[in-house]
Design goal:
Blueprint lengths: L1 E6 L1 E3 L20 E3 L1 H17 L2 E7 L5 H10 L3 E5 L9 H13 L6 E5 L10 H9 L3 E12 L2 E8 L2 E8 L2 E5 L11 H6 L5 E4 L40 H14 L4
Parallel strand pairs: 1-4, 1-6, 4-5, 5-11, 6-10, 7-10
Antiparallel strand pairs: 2-3, 7-8, 8-9
Helix pairs in contact: 3-4
């Protein structure tokens, strides 16, 4: 079974800085770490490989120093890493990022299961996994808390969907996003760190991708642009509505109209 895990290197501090002029995240060259949610995705993938055989590949998109995140994954037990890096990819929003990742995945070889973390601690959108699957045209499910079985081209999982736990079966190839409740990630192996020489990490640039049109990537390929950066207002208030589909739609319309959103 061929498993591919999408990971990301994020700032080591929770105090993420944003350039007020460009609206882009300021990514430091030092003090970065592997996105915490990705650790659960890696552990789940390694456990699945132990049961089914095959290989676990890892892929990330970022500047050259993002290779450090791939190295950590290899030390944990992953088999091979791919770094998507090119100045043309800089400043991408979630749509351009997910498209770039989908193009990179196509270059990694045959993949049965793509595993992502629930979200990243810098952008915090939780959208890239699902959008990547849409670009690839494969089924996907978020907030997965348990992989129940893999059998005859299907993977069955449990997922936390807000107010309920659902059990779903997805035909492979597919993509799942792991929640933090699934496992306890293993530590990197010092022996593997000393044994590996970096030859298992491969770089992919724009010229290596199937779609070489630079207007589909980075800032040029991003339909959303940040207009203003400000601290969000914290609020715990919420409104619960019940009823039939028609009643819920009407109540939602009335609520948005009252608050002058529409």
């Amino acid at each position: 079974m061929n498993i591919l895990v999408c990971v990301k290197q994020v700032p080591g501090s929770s105090n993420v800085q944003v350039d007020e002029k460009t609206g882009l995240l300021i990514r430091p060259k030092k003090g970065n770490k592997l996105n915490p949610y990705d650790l659960y995705a890696i552990e789940a993938s390694l456990e699945l490989r132990e049961k089914t055989g095959g290989a676990v590949k890892i892929l990330t998109m970022g500047p050259p120093q993002a290779a450090e995140a791939l190295e950590e994954c290899l030390w944990m037990g992953c088999d091979e890493g791919f770094l998507i890096t090119d100045r043309a990819f800089g400043g991408a929003d979630v749509l351009a990022t997910s498209y770039t990742i989908s193009q990179g995945i196509r270059r990694t070889g045959s993949v049965d299961l793509i595993v992502c973390g629930k979200q990243t601690t810098d952008g915090d959108t939780a959208q890239v996994g699902a959008e990547t699957a849409e670009h690839l045209g494969i089924p996907h499910l978020s907030n997965v808390t348990k992989i129940l079985s893999v059998d005859k081209g299907w993977v069955t999982v449990e997922a936390n969907q807000e107010n309920m736990i659902v059990k779903e079966s997805l035909r492979m190839p597919c993509l799942i996003c792991m929640d933090s409740e699934i496992n306890t990630p293993r530590l990197p192996s010092y022996r593997r760190k000393k044994a590996l020489d970096g030859s298992l990490i491969h770089s992919l640039t724009l010229n290596d991708l199937e779609d070489k049109d630079s207007t589909h990537y980075g800032l040029k390929g991003s339909p959303t642009q940040v207009q203003k950066v400000f601290p969000p207002e914290k609020s715990t208030s919420r409104v619960m509505v019940e009823g039939s589909s028609e009643e819920l739609a009407q109540k939602l319309n009335d609520l948005l109209a009252d608050r002058k959103f529409i």
